[in-house]
Amino acid sequence: MGLPSASTYPAATRGHTGLDLRHLRRCLGRFTTGVTVVSYRSGEGMRGVTVNSFTSVSLDPPLVLVSIARGAKAAVALRDAPFTVNVLAADQLDLAWTFAGRPVDGARVRWDSRVGGVAHLRGSAAWFECAPWDAIDAGDHVLFLGAVVAHDQRQVEPLLFQSGKFRALGTELGAGPGRQADPLSWIQHRLHAQRLTDDGARAVLNQL
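Above: the chain sequence. Below: its structure as tokens.
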């Protein structure tokens, strides 16, 4: 099969590469991610930004990476600054929206911290406190590498994001040979996912 010609896509949506950027965004959205809030200190106290572009980079030394839109305030505040990556739990959807610039009434933002550290969100599935390692300009985003100096986790389900909607974990597929998933468990997961899904959701990064 040959590659599509430039005329395949409307010219108004093509970037300088000739790609249809809206279609590219939809394709990228098929990749399911977790949802994080990157917290940092500012002159006005603790601040945070919702980010779903987060990855581990190295175990030795322990490095993680977050990608922040260049136009976000956090892209300035995180330059040479320590930060904490909070992996949100499935019951923290209100925090995901709140730190994406769309505050939810009644959202409970509760901070915990260790002495001298950058605060993390109470109730998160995991958190990674980081010292600044490097910042890399990458198109319309800035990639911030952090060296992990403290971390912890809880045995709770994480919040997920895929195709512009928040989601919950589904059925575990790696049960092993000769074992079948519990049908009741599958139904419970689907009902839980439906409750968490916001049909009017837009991509989290659109809110930055």
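Confidence is low (pLDDT under 50) at residues 1-13, 197-208.
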